[in-house]
Amino acid sequence: MIVLGTRGSQLALAQANLVVEALRRLRSAPEAVVRVIQSDGDLAPEATLTDPRAGGWFTSRLQQELAAGSIDAAVHSAKDLPTSTPAGLTVPAYLERADFRDAVVTRARIPWLELPPGCRLGTSSPRRTAQLRAVRPDLNFPRIRGNVPTRLRLVDQGDVDGVVVAAAGLLRLGLLGRAQPLDPHSECTPAAGQGAIAVEARADSGWLEVLAALDHPPTRLAVEAERRLLGRMGGGCQLALGALAEPIPAGGWLVSAAYSADGAGLRREAAVVPDLLAQDALGELVGRLGAPG
Predict the structure, then answer these.
(1) How high is the pLDDT of residue 42?
(2) Separation between Cα atoms, residue 53 and residue 39, nearest integer Å
(3) 132 lies in which domain range?
(4) For the chain: N or C, fewer Cβ within 10 A?
(5) In the annotation, is 72 catalytic?
(6) Which has the closest alpha carbon to 268: 254, 292, 285, 247?
(7) Exposure of 107 by Cβ count < 10 A (0-12 exposed, 13-18 middle, 19+ buried)?
(8) Per the residue annotation, which of 42, 51, 80, 275 is the catalytic one?
(9) CA–CA dist 192, 169 (Å, integer)
């Protein structure tokens, strides 16, 4: 029996169940059970992503339980993973990526570009705020926290006029019909790893071969490139950086990024990268973004 650790939100449980279902489809399927572990972020619901405690606060307790051996694997939203993996742990599988875009949900489904000036579009993300403010500087972007259903309730109750969330989360909760997906190149470039589910395990685990059978190689290539870019820029969820790697028909990858050093001046850059695995394949793009690294 393999024990999967996850956060206890509705979305986290839905993602863990996707891993359970993927394991069941294997030829010699192991029995899988899900164990809920509260994260630091769950224990500090009043804090936002700009809080100094935010680095790794959706993943660190799961990683501690994993290292201690109380669970066999941890299921994460890939975008929550810190850019460096703790010693002794590894990520044997990324499930095939779902919709990587951000999306806006508004009351009465008003297109977000048609919201009257002064409307409140809630988000806790510096990345989303910087990009959407560049398109609509006349809107307000109050900081909010909470899981996806909580954020949608804020809209329904009139606390905000709309919220920005990941389209994949809405999809996995059956709520994508409410969403207005955002263009990842002109409106809001997603977070590194957004839309992907990461399965983390101990490097010496006897389950590595089984878990690796769940891996989707194109998703791994894209997500790890985005995470390398994020690491080169020196940040995590507190950094106003969007990163997206997409395969292109002619071969290679289109890597797009949106970066704001101060939350105000936004830079958008893109580069065609023939080989994401090549040494310093992202160096030119990092330089054009004005990165510290």
Answers:
(1) 54
(2) 12
(3) 102-181
(4) N
(5) no
(6) 285
(7) middle
(8) 80
(9) 15
